[in-house]
Target: Secreted protein
Amino acid sequence: MSTGLIIAIVIVAAVVVVAALLAVRARGSGPQGLKRRFGPEYERTVAQHGGDTKAAEQELAERVQRHGGLHERELEPAERERYAARWTTAQEHFVDSPRESVAEIDRLLAELAADRGFPAGADYEEQVAALSVHHAAHVDGYRRVHRAVQAPVGGSPQSQAGTEEMRTAMIEARSLFDDLVTPSSHEHGRHRAGVGADTGGHLPWSADQSRPKES
Model:
């Protein structure tokens, strides 16, 4: 086989691969692909744009373009244990210091996401945008925690985050925490023991146990 023919075959094969990748990307960025990928985040973004699905889909497609290629770094067992211990401590202090506990959860999630390879927590909006691409089903719990922390302490009752609101925010944020701290499928078997004792896969204040006092 001549060198020219070999080169031609390689070029054709490369073109086919690129075309296939572009087709997959186009399907994933189309309306149905975005709905499947983002789930409740799709509906939230549409509502944020006042029902304008075209504007919402453009925003979501741009998020995929910016962050779709992000590869999450696996945590070491000691890192998982440290984050699990921090969550447990924050949860235990909620009854006496709900705002401080929620603030610690906000910091914890920002640091955990950064350790997994997402944008640093200092750029909160970009970090959340990246998380929404890879953890769309659970990212809104992080938003709720962050809003509760940012709510003014001395403002009107309508602008303050009450104890029940902060408790609910922490419960919803736990799902994202579990996503980020749990080993991925190929690591799960090796490292499962590191986190189980602290997280246990349970949402805080399940059933009626250790329910915080209302403010």
